[in-house]
Amino acid sequence: MTPEVLVRSGTSWAAVPFVPEIRLLTAPEPFGLWDLTKRDAPPFWAFPWAGGQGLARYVLDHPEVVSGRRVLDVASGSGLVAIAAAKGGAASVIAGDLDPNAVAAIGINACANDVAAITARVLDFATDDPSGAQVVLAADVFYQRELAELALRFLRGAAASGAAVLVADPGRAFLPADTLTPLASYEVPVLTVLEDKPVKTVRVYHVA
Which of 19, 178, 182, 183 is deepest in the core (most CB within 10 A)? Predict the structure, then answer.
């Protein structure tokens, strides 16, 4: 089964609850699709996660953050934030994710939302770099200790190279909130099959 066929298996088109301007291939639950992927990691690309919804909303409401700039969306998943950046007028968008199935999902979702400025590729926090991006975006990357450490090192490296770095998070366990500058807060509706409550508080932060 090719990644494109797998991505379309068990998913259907749905508007993103907090960002209805964007629609994504979305699964009703993760487990059947997870079995199909034969991967250790869940199919994160099949859902609009809370942090991604919050960051996409912020980018669409503040297009000056990305307009005319080279954008890198890391741990992109479905491509939601990357699509928001393209709709906000980014000169180019690279959407990177470690999962090749996510790369396929990003391409399909970008096409369905009529954005052509997105390039999807495999990206690993441990081995890749910000690739000359002027803006780096990341959502929901602090849910696991090792990933959070890798992500923060990558994001701070991007900031040190001169990129504007924004992250969004719904209060995951390893969020280093005391080292980040808060910019906005949203009450975001989420899928209850994924979260412990139907609405999560998502905060958008600046990383220095």
Answer: 19
